[in-house]
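Ticket #4471: complex job returned nothing on first submit. Input attached below:
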Amino acid sequence: MSVLEETKFLMKKYHINANKNLGQNFLVDDDVVDNIVSSANIEPNDLVIEIGPGLGTLTARLLEKANKVIAIELDDKMMPILEERFHLYHNFELIHQDVLKVDLKQKIEENKEKVSDIKIVANLPYYITTPIIMKLLEEHLPVESITVMIQKEVADRLTAIPGKKNTGAITYCISYYCEAQEILLVPNTSFIPSPEVNSEVIQLTIRKEPPVIVKDENFFFRVIHASFMQRRKTLLNGLANNGIASKETLKKMLNDLQLDENIRGEALNLSQFAQISDYLSK
Ligand code: SAM
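Support reply: We reran it on our side without changes. The output follows.
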């Protein structure tokens, strides 16, 4: 049975109407499903954490490959479907909760002994893509990679190169924690219902060490966020207006670091932000 037939069958059997508020766009393209699962490089000893399994389309394929799959789903209506579909799999665990509230560190700790690598795979709900990705990174989870389908526009930002086009504060966060790779463009016709936007599968490979060493990681990210809060402002005004330092201190810093007084945050690379953050946290 194709993924499209499977999805239509399950939606009919369980009287499911996709819930827009939960970002439900079910993937119905066999090639894309295969591509996500093969790009995730799942080994027989891996623990896979899937966010938003929905009707279980990716879950079914992940269960065949991984040592264990922990699927985290918020929607009550998906519970009986997932439980019935996968109750015979000893390697399936379902968590009925908002992923943003799940203690992932604890979950990983419980399973760590039995698995080698931990990989995250998901067709993410688009309304909370950024908070989910930031949670996964900021919690410093011992995860190897994150392979996710997200909105194309967000993918562009996450995989942009700091200091070049299309960047935002999140570009710098991503490039601090991981190497980002674009995997596959996915048209909106690959989903039921079709979202208004196109999508892309990206893979984030978590770095063992960050590419720059900073004195104070929290302050480093505060500086980056402050620089991007008002995009049309200079770095000087962005940092001053957001309480990072006085204009006087910032002018001296720009001079000491040999940066133009009118430079904008988006022109800086990661090491320059590290220099600025270290200078100001002295
Ligand atoms: N994996 C399925 C697929 O590929 O067809 C469904 C993907 S759909 C884009 C996103 C899924 O995330 C939905 O099943 C939705 O109910 C679920 N979801 C939405 N918000 C969530 C949250 N805060 N925590 C966990 N799951 C959530």
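The longest strand covers residues 178-186. Closing as resolved unless it happens again.
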